[in-house]
C-alpha cells in the first residue's frame, strides 16, 4: 500500500504526522516546533529589551524578569536552535548522501517526540507556578535555593528533550557511516553532511555530561540528594564543570551545521566548488575536537588558579585558527565566482563580517586576565549573540530560505525574503554591537534594571530599538510563509538552478522513497558533475525495483508521552500522594510501549516498481 | 571606486574611534578608565587584543568588500560558469600560520598577566607583614560584608581601602554564589559557597580623585530577584586617613543624644538588633551576622546599596523593603511599624556615625 499522491482529510494528515517515521516529515515537524519555540523565545527577548529600555523601568521586575531571561536562553538554545538544526539535518542529509531515509527511522521519530514533550513540559511552567529563574546555566547554589517548581521543570524538561537530541545524534552518525550511496566516499560528502557528522559526534560526547548533571540536580531537588549541597559534603562547582563540559561543545553543535549550511550556499550561488574542501573538512573536525578542551574558559573567575586559567586561555585561542581557515576559504569560494545575491546568499554574505566580530571577541574573551573584566558583563552577552545570532540564526534563516522549496515544493517570495534579511541584519547589529561597550562600561549581565547616571542609558535604548527591527523581520518572514503556502510559485527539482549536491536531483518535495534508484556518486558535488557533462539526471547504481519502506508507528509518540506524564508525577511527589503513582504510571506507559516495540514484528512495506514508475512519470511530466 | 573605498574605510575607522572616546563610560564604573594596577594591566591586554583583532577585521573586510563587489553577477552573465578551483596550499598555509603568530603575540602577555594577578603570596605568609591590608569579603543575598581581620572591625556596603598599595581580599559567599566586581579598579572574582577565593586590587589615588572619591562595585553573578541591585561602594583613602578611619572604627560606639533618636534606639534594640550590629567590633561568628553591620550607617553613601542617602529613602526602605529590593531577607522580619516608629528609627540610624 502506498500513500503517494493521495488527498487526505485534516484528521488523516494529523495522524500521518503523529505516526510518521519519514525523515522529511520529521524535518517539517522539527521546523514547526522549533519555529514556534523561536517565536516564544523571541517574545521573551523583546520583554527583556523593553524592561531595559530605560533606567529603573518597572515593566518586568526582579524574579519575573529572571524567569523571562532564563526561559529566553533555555528556549532559544534547546527548543529553537537545536530542533531547527535538526530540521535542516533531517530534511537534507539523507538525500545529500543518496539514502532513502536515516538508519533508524523509528528512533528518529522518537527523538522528535521526546524533544517536543520536553519542550512543552518546560514551557508549561509558566502556567504552573512560575518558570525556572536561575539562568539557562542554572548554577547549582542558586538553582537549589530557588523556591517553587521552576527549576524542576528545567531539570526534567531538559532531561527528556536531551534524550531526544542524543538519539538524533546517534542516528545521524550511523546514517552517515552506513547509508552513503555507492561512490559517496567520506571526502566526497557535501560540507553540510560533514558538519552534521561532526556535530553528531559532539552530541554523542557532550550530552551525557549534561544528563549526569541534570540527574544530580534532580536527586538534590526532588529526592533529598546532596551532590551540590556543600553542607552535605557536595560541591556546586561540579555542576559548573558538568554544565560547561556540555555547554561549550553545545556552541559548536549549533555552529558547525551553520558553517555547513553556509558552505553549501556559498558554493551554489558563487557557482564554484567550495574552495579548499579538504582543509574545510579538517577545520571542522579540529573545531569539534578542540571544542571539548576549552570548557573552563566559562569559569575563569571561579578561582581555578592561574595554571588552569592559562592552559584554557591558550587552548581557547587555538580554536581561532581553524575558524579563520574557514572564513578565508569561504571568501575564496566567492573569489572569481559569479555571485547571485539571492536571499540565502545575502544571509551567507552578511554572516562573514557578523561572525568575524563574534569570533574576534571570542579571542578577546580567551585572554583570561582580561576576561576577569568581560566575564558576566554585557560584553559577553554581545559576544555570544554575535556568534549565535550572527552565526546560527543567520544560517537557519538562510537554510530555511534555501531548502524551503525542497521541503515544501514552493519558492519563498524573494522580495519579502530580502526585506526580512535587511530588517534582521540592521536590527541585529543595532541590538548587539552597542552591548560590547555597555559591558566594558560596567554593566553586568542578567540585571533587571540599572540606575540612572551610570552612563548606560543611551546604549540600552539603542539596543532596544534594534530588537524591534528583528521582531519586524520575523513578522515579515511569517507573512512570507503564509503567502507562499497559499499561492507560492512551484519549485523545480533543481529549485535554484545552480544546485550541486544530490538533494537538488530529486523532485521538490522529494517522493517518500527519495531516490527511485540509488545514485552512483562520481565525485564531490555529484549533481554538478552530471550537469556539466550535459546529463539530465544522476547515474543510477542499481536497477529499478521494489523499494522497502518502514511502517509508520504511534509508539514514539506514546513513549514520549509516558515520560512527560512521569515527569509531572515525580515533580509533585513530595507534596501530593498521587505524585508517585502518576510517576510510576508514566514510566509504565513508556516501558510498556518499548516492550510492544520489541515484541511486535514489523517488516515494513514495499513500494512496488510500477508505483514508483508511475510516480516518477508524474514528476517528469 | 578605490578612492571611495578608502574614504569609507577611514570614515568608519574614525567613527569607531569617536564612539570609543565618547563611550568610555563613567570614571567610577567603567573598565575603560582604569583606576589601579589590576585594571591597568587588564586594560592594556584589552587594547592589545583589540588591536590584533581590528587588524584581522580589516584584512577580512578588504577581501570581503572586494569579492562581493568585483565578483557579483552582472547583467548578461547569468549563464557564465566560473572556473572550478579546488584550493591552494600556499594560501591555506598563509592563513594558518599568520593567525598562529598573532595568537602567540596575544598569548604570552595573557599568561604572564594571569599569573601576576593571581599572586597572593604576601597575604598568605606565615608571618604576614602587618602593614598589608587584608579584607574578608562575604557576599550575602543583596548585601556585602567587609571584615578587616587584622583590625577586628567589620563594616558593610561601603568598602574602605587605602590607596596606592595592594589590598588583598578573601572572598566567599554565605548563601548563593555571587561575584565581586569593581569594574574601574579590576576584574571580578566569584564568591563561592564552598571555598575561599583570594585576589588583590590596587586603588590609584589620582584616579580616585578623578572619579569623585568613590567607585561603584557590582555583583556579577545572577543571585536572585535583586541581583541587579546588589551594588556596593568603594571609598579609597590615602593610607594615613585610612589608618585614622580604622582607629575610629575600633572605638566606635553609638552615641544617642536626640530624644527621638533615643526612641528609635529602643525600637532598634527590640526589633533589629537580633540581626544588625551597631558596633564595628562584632565578635559573633559569621553565621550569626545575618544582616549588614550598621555601625557607620550615617556615613554611608547609599540606602540599601542603591537609593540616595537621605531620610526619605530610608523611611521608604524601612516601610516596604520589597518595593526597593524584591526578594530581600529583611522583609517581614520586624512586623509592622507605625510612621512614628519609622521616623524615630530613621533618626537613630542616621545618627550612627563614626567620622
Automatic annotation (TrEMBL), chain A:
Question: Per its record, what are the GO molecular function terms?
Answer: cytochrome-c oxidase activity; heme binding; metal ion binding
Domain of life here?
A: Bacteria
**InterPro entries assigned to the protein according to its UniProt record, in alphabetical order:** Cyt_c_oxase-like_su1_dom, Cyt_c_oxase-like_su1_sf, Cyt_C_Oxase_1, Cyt_c_Oxase_su1_BS, Cyt_c_oxidase_su1_bac
Entry EC number(s): 7.1.1.9
- Class of this enzyme: translocase
- Transmembrane as a keyword? yes
Q: In which pathway does it act?
A: Energy metabolism; oxidative phosphorylation
| Signal sequence extent | none
Query: Where in or outside the cell?
Result: Cell membrane
Membrane-spanning ranges: 27-48, 68-93, 105-128, 153-179, 191-218, 238-262, 274-295, 307-332, 344-364, 384-404, 416-441, 461-483, 554-572, 578-600
Q: Which reaction does it catalyse?
A: 4 Fe(II)-[cytochrome c] + O2 + 8 H(+)(in) = 4 Fe(III)-[cytochrome c] + 2 H2O + 4 H(+)(out)
Looking up PROSITE patterns in the UniProt record yields:
COX1 (PS50855), COX1_CUB (PS00077)
Q: Which Gene3D superfamilies match?
A: 1.10.287.70, Cytochrome c oxidase-like, subunit I domain (1.20.210.10)
Give an example GO biological process.
oxidative phosphorylation
* One CC-aspect GO term: plasma membrane
Keywords attached to this entry: Cell membrane, Copper, Electron transport, Heme, Iron, Membrane, Metal-binding, Respiratory chain, Translocase, Transmembrane, Transmembrane helix, Transport
Q: Which cofactor does it need?
A: heme; Cu(2+)
| Record domain Cytochrome oxidase subunit I profile: where | 9-522
Q: How does it sit in the membrane?
A: Multi-pass membrane protein
Main function: Cytochrome c oxidase is the component of the respiratory chain that catalyzes the reduction of oxygen to water. Subunits 1-3 form the functional core of the enzyme complex. CO I is the catalytic subunit of the enzyme. Electrons originating in cytochrome c are transferred via the copper A center of subunit 2 and heme A of subunit 1 to the bimetallic center formed by heme A3 and copper B. Cytochrome c oxidase is the component of the respiratory chain that catalyzes the reduction of oxygen to water. Subunits 1-3 form the functional core of the enzyme complex. Co I is the catalytic subunit of the enzyme. Electrons originating in cytochrome c are transferred via the copper A center of subunit 2 and heme a of subunit 1 to the bimetallic center formed by heme a3 and copper B. This cytochrome c oxidase shows proton pump activity across the membrane in addition to the electron transfer.
Q: Which family does it belong to?
A: Belongs to the heme-copper respiratory oxidase family.
- Protein's name in the database: Cytochrome c oxidase subunit 1
Whose protein is this, by species?
Anoxybacteroides tepidamans
Taxonomic lineage: Bacteria, Bacillati, Bacillota, Bacilli, Bacillales
TrEMBL record, chain B:
Domain of life (superkingdom): Bacteria
Give me the reactions it catalyses.
Answer: 4 Fe(II)-[cytochrome c] + O2 + 8 H(+)(in) = 4 Fe(III)-[cytochrome c] + 2 H2O + 4 H(+)(out)
Gene3D superfamilies named in the record: 1.10.287.90, Cupredoxins - blue copper proteins
A GO term for molecular function: oxidoreductase activity
| Cytochrome oxidase subunit II copper A binding domain boundaries | 130-248
Q: Which residues form the Cytochrome c domain?
A: 259-353
Q: How is the cofactor bound?
A: Binds a copper A center.
For biological process, the GO terms are: ATP synthesis coupled electron transport
Q: Where in the cell is it found?
A: Cell membrane
First-tier enzyme category under EC: translocase
Name the GO cellular-component terms.
plasma membrane
UniProt topology in membrane: Multi-pass membrane protein
Q: Per UniProt, which keywords does this protein have?
A: Cell membrane, Copper, Electron transport, Heme, Iron, Membrane, Metal-binding, Respiratory chain, Signal, Translocase, Transmembrane, Transmembrane helix, Transport
Name the residues that span the membrane. Answer: 41-69, 93-115
Pfam families linked to this entry: COX2, COX2_TM, Cytochrom_C
**Could you tell me which residue ranges the Cytochrome oxidase subunit II transmembrane region profile domain spans?**
23-121
Report the EC number(s), separated by commas if there are several: 7.1.1.9
Q: What are the names of the required cofactors? A: heme c; Cu cation
- The main place the protein resides is membrane
UniProt family annotation: Belongs to the cytochrome c oxidase subunit 2 family.
Q: What does this protein do?
A: Subunits I and II form the functional core of the enzyme complex. Electrons originating in cytochrome c are transferred via heme a and Cu(A) to the binuclear center formed by heme a3 and Cu(B).
Indicate what this protein is called per its UniProt record.
Cytochrome c oxidase subunit 2
Q: Which organism is it from?
A: Anoxybacteroides tepidamans
Amino acid at each position: 500500500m502506498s500513500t503517494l499522491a493521495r488527498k487526505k482529510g485534516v484528521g488523516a494528515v494529523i495522524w500521518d504526522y503523529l505516526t510518521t517515521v519519514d525523515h522529511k516529515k520529521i524535518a517539517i515537524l522539527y521546523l514547526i516546533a522549533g519555529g514556534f519555540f523561536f517565536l516564544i523565545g523571541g517574545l521573551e527577548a523583546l520583554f527583556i529589551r523593553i524592561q531595559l529600555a530605560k533606567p529603573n523601568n518597572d515593566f518586568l521586575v526582579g524574579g519575573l524578569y529572571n524567569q523571562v531571561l532564563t526561559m529566553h536562553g533555555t528556549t532559544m538554545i534547546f527548543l529553537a536552535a537545536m530542533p531547527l538544526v535538526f530540521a535542516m539535518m533531517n530534511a537534507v542529509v539523507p538525500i545529500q548522501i543518496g539514502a532513502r531515509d536515516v538508519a533508524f527511522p523509528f528512533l528518529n521519530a522518537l527523538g522528535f517526540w521526546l524533544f517536543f514533550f520536553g519542550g512543552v513540559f518546560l514551557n508549561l511552567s509558566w502556567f504552573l507556578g512560575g518558570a525556572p529563574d536561575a539562568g539557562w546555566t542554572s548554577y547549582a547554589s542558586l538553582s537549589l535555593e530557588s523556591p517553587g517548581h521552576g527549576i524542576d521543570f528545567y531539570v526534567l524538561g531538559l532531561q527528556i528533550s536531551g534524550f531526544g537530541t542524543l538519539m538524533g545524534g546517534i542516528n545521524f552518525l550511523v546514517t552517515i557511516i552506513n547509508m552513503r550511496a555507492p561512490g559517496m566516499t567520506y571526502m566526497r560528502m557535501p560540507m553540510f553532511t560533514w558538519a552534521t557528522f561532526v556535530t553528531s559526534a559532539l552530541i554523542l560526547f557532550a550530552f551525557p555530561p549534561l544528563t549526569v548533571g541534570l540527574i544530580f540536580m534532580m536527586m538534590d531537588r526532588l529526592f533529598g540528594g546532596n551532590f551540590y549541597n556543600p553542607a552535605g559534603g557536595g560541591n556546586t562547582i561540579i555542576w559548573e564543570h558538568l554544565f560547561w563540559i556540555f555547554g561549550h561543545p553545545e556552541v559548536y553543535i549549533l555552529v558547525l551545521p551553520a558553517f555547513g549550511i553556509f558552505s553549501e550556499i556559498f558554493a551554489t550561488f558563487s557557482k564554484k566548488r567550495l574552495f579548499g574542501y579538504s582543509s574545510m573538512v579538517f577545520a571542522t573536525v579540529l573545531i569539534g575536537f578542540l571544542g571539548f578542551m576549552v570548557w573552563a574558559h566559562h569559569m575563569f573567575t571561579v578561582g581555578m588558579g592561574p595554571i588552569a586559567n592559562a592552559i584554557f586561555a591558550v587552548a581557547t585561542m587555538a580554536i581561532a585558527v581553524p575558524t579563520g581557515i574557514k572564513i578565508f576559504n569561504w571568501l575564496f569560494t566567492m573569489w572569481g565566482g559569479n555571485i547571485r545575491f539571492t536571499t540565502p546568499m545575502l544571509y551567507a554574505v552578511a554572516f562573514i563580517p557578523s561572525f568575524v566580530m563574534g569570533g574576534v571577541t571570542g579571542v578577546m574573551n580567551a585572554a583570561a586576565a582580561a576576561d576577569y573584566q568581560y566575564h558576566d558583563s554585557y560584553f559577553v552577552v554581545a559576544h555570544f549573540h554575535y556568534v549565535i545570532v550572527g552565526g546560527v540564526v543567520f544560517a537557519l534563516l538562510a537554510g530555511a530560505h534555501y531548502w524551503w522549496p525542497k521541503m515544501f515544493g514552493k519558492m519563498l517570495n524573494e522580495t519579502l525574503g530580502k526585506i526580512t534579511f535587511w530588517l534582521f541584519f540592521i536590527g541585529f547589529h543595532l541590538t548587539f554591537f552597542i552591548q560590547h561597550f555597555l559591558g566594558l562600561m560596567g554593566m553586568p549581565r542578567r540585571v533587571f534594571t540599572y540606575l540612572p547616571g551610570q552612563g548606560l542609558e543611551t546604549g540600552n535604548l539603542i539596543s532596544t530599538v534594534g530588537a524591534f527591527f528583528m521582531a519586524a523581520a520575523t513578522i515579515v518572514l511569517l507573512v512570507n510563509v503564509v503567502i507562499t503556502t497559499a499561492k507560492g510559485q512551484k519549485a523545480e527539482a533543481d529549485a535554484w538552478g545552480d544546485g550541486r549536491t544530490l538533494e537538488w536531483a530529486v523532485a521538490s518535495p522529494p517522493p517518500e522513497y527519495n531516490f527511485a534508484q540509488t545514485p552512483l556518486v562520481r565525485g564531490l558535488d555529484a549533481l554538478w558533475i552530471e550537469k556539466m557533462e550535459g546529463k539530465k539526471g544522476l547515474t543510477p547504481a542499481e536497477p529499478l525495483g521494489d523499494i522497502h519502506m518502514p511502517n509508520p508507528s504511534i509508539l514514539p509518540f506514546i513513549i514520549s508521552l509516558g515520560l512527560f506524564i512521569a515527569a509531572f508525577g515525580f515533580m509533585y511527589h513530595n507534596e501530593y500522594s498521587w505524585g508517585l503513582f502518576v510517576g510510576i504510571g508514566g514510566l509504565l506507559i513508556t516501558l510498556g510501549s518499548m516492550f510492544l516495540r520489541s515484541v511486535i514484528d514489523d517488516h515494513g512495506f514495499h513500494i512496488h516498481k510500477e508505483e514508483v514508475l508511475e510516480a516518477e512519470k508524474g514528476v517528469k511530466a | 571606486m578605490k578612492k571611495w573605498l578608502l574614504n569609507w574605510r577611514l570614515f568608519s575607522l574614525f567613527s569607531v574611534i569617536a564612539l570609543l572616546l565618547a563611550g568610555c563610560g563613567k570614571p567610577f564604573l567603567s573598565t575603560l578608565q582604569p583606576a589601579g594596577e589590576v585594571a591597568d594591566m587588564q586594560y592594556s591586554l584589552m587594547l592589545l587584543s583589540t588591536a590584533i583583532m581590528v587588524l584581522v577585521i580589516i584584512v577580512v573586510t578588504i577581501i570581503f568588500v572586494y569579492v562581493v563587489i568585483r565578483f557579483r553577477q552582472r547583467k548578461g552573465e547569468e549563464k557564465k560558469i566560473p572556473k572550478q578551483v579546488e584550493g591552494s596550499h600556499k594560501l591555506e598555509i598563509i592563513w594558518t600560520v599568520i593567525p598562529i603568530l598573532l595568537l602567540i603575540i596575544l598569548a604570552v602577555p595573557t599568561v604572564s598577566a594571569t599569573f601576576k594577578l593571581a599572586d597572593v603570596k604576601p597575604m598568605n605568609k606565615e608571618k604576614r607583614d602587618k602593614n598589608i591590608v587584608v579584607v574578608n569579603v562575604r557576599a550575602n543575598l543583596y548585601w556585602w560584608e567587609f571584615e578587616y581581620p587584622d583590625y577586628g572591625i567589620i563594616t558593610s556596603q561601603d568598602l574602605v581601602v587605602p590607596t596606592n598599595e595592594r589590598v588583598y581580599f578573601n572572598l566567599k559567599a554565605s548563601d548563593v554564589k555571587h561575584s565581586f566586581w569593581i569594574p574601574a579598579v579590576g576584574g571580578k572574582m566569584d564568591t563561592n559557597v564552598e571555598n575561599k577565593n583570594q585576589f588583590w586590587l590596587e586603588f590609584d589615588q589620582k584616579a580616585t580623585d578623578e572619579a569623585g572619591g568613590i567607585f561603584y562595585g557590582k555583583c556579577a553573578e545572577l543571585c536572585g530577584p535583586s541581583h541587579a541591585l546588589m551594588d556596593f561602594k568603594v571609598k579609597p583613602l590615602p593610607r594615613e586617613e585610612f589608618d585614622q578611619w580604622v582607629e575610629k572604627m575600633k572605638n566606635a560606639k553609638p552615641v544617642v543624644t536626640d530624644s527621638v533618636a533615643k526612641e528609635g534606639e529602643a525600637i532598634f534594640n527590640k526589633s533589629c538588633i537580633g540581626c544588625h550590629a551597631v558596633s564595628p567590633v562584632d565578635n559573633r561568628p559569621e553565621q550569626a551576622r545575618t544582616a549588614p553591620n550598621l555601625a557607620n550607617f550615617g556615613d554611608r553613601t547609599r540606602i540599601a546599596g542603591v537609593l540616595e542617602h537621605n531620610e526619605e529613602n530610608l523611611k521608604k526602605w524601612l516601610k516596604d523593603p520589597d518595593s526597593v529590593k524584591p526578594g530581600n531577607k529583611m522583609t517581614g522580619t520586624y512586623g509592622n511599624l507605625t510612621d512614628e516608629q519609622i521616623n524615630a528609627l530613621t533618626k537613630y540610624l542616621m545618627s550612627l556615625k563614626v567620622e
